[in-house]
Write a structure and sequence with these properties.
Length: about 350
């Protein structure tokens, strides 16, 4: 049987003993985990170290939650600080009310702090995280389904969302456009677009994040126009529509300027890790080269010693031969000496005789 509408959950919270398990909170938490997981994979693909995205998210996520809540409370202050308002309700985040604009703005500040502490360029980190943010938003939007909030204009379309009446908060029952579903699907499309464009054009230096922002704002503008919840209007348009238009223009301008100033993609995204690893590999390579050189030097030294040993042996043999020749000559000289002496004596005798005759 075909459904004539999408049913809303009868309850948005289940109690496990004294502990409340809220569907809205679960959607936010799951969205954060999925975003960080995908961001980590993309960061490692870009040459970064695994775990870095999560380390910086420790700063970004709390800042983002505070920023999202602040934006909601400031732009929708009446239930908290208006007539018959309840200021303490501003801290009840589980009841819903997180503005994406404030979440991204203050979350970016937290990410900047984390990046600065790690010596990492903020644009590179934002590029790695961008598709994960879009998917995290797609998951987080289902929290509005659990809370039966932020729906659109009445409709009888087959995919209309059934909203239960609640006189306590002035909610009128009926079937409405499921704007939470529209935005969830739009965010999934944005994630796919960003991943494709990043691979196709090798975007870098913050342009991936800027593309995500521009694409999200495009969808948010027409989805916001369909919503019927109370909001401030400026020149006949909802405040969030103006915000989406302004942020869209800023994102496009950033993409154009960044492409001219820093084309291409960063080669190094985590200097301390990548350069340290390169130095280590270089040292290992140098050590291997040194080992080869030492082996060659040892061989050359052994050959040189062998040649010197051969030369010394030849010289020793030559010296021994020379000594043998000298000894032979001396022996011959000794044998011829008496003959020489006799001849001298005869000559002397003959001389003497001659002298007597004269």
């Amino acid at each position: 049987m075909d459904l004539a509408f999408i049913p809303s959950p009868s309850v948005g919270v289940v109690h496990l003993g004294p502990i409340p398990l809220r569907g809205y909170a679960f959607c936010i938490i799951i969205g954060v985990f999925v975003g960080v997981w995908l961001g980590n994979r993309r960061w490692v693909q870009r040459g970064g170290r695994t775990g870095t995205v999560a380390d910086i998210a420790v700063w970004a996520v709390p800042f983002g939650l505070v920023g999202g809540r602040l934006y909601h409370v400031i732009t929708t202050y009446e239930p908290y600080f208006g007539k018959n308002g309840h200021p303490l309700d501003a801290f009840k985040v589980w009841q819903g009310g997180l503005g994406i604009w404030g979440a991204v703005a203050l979350g970016a500040l937290g990410a900047w702090i984390g990046c600065r502490r790690r010596g990492i360029p903020m644009p590179a980190y934002a590029d790695a995280l961008a598709p994960g943010l879009a998917i995290g938003q797609a998951i987080g939007r289902w929290g509005n389904w659990f809370n039966q909030e932020l729906y659109g204009k009445p409709t009888d379309l087959p995919w209309a969302l059934k909203i239960d009446p609640d006189p306590a908060i002035g909610r009128i029952g009926g079937t409405y456009h499921p704007t939470f579903l529209y935005e969830s699907l739009w965010c999934l499309g944005v994630a796919a677009l960003v991943i494709w464009a990043d691979k196709r054009f090798r975007l870098g230096h913050g342009r991936v994040f800027a593309l995500y922002v521009a694409a999200y704002c495009t969808g948010r503008a027409w989805i916001e126009y369909m919503r019927v919840d109370e909001a401030h209007h400026i020149l006949g348009m909802r405040l969030n529509v103006w915000t989406a238009l302004i942020v869209f223009v800023l994102a496009v301008v950033y993409m154009i300027v960044s492409a001219k100033k820093a084309p291409g993609r960063e080669e190094i995204v985590e200097p301390e890790w990548q350069l340290g690893e390169g130095a280590q590999n270089g040292a290992e390579g140098t050590g291997a080269d040194k080992g080869v050189k030492l082996d060659k030097a040892d061989k050359a030294e052994k050959v040189e010693k062998s040649e010197k040993s051969d030369k010394a042996e030849k010289i020793d043999k030559a010296d021994e031969g020379a000594e043998g020749d000298a000894e032979g000559s001396a022996a011959v000289g000794k044998k011829g000496a008496p003959a020489d002496g006799s001849a001298s004596g005869s000559a002397e005798a003959a001389g003497s005789a001659g002298g007597a005759k004269s």
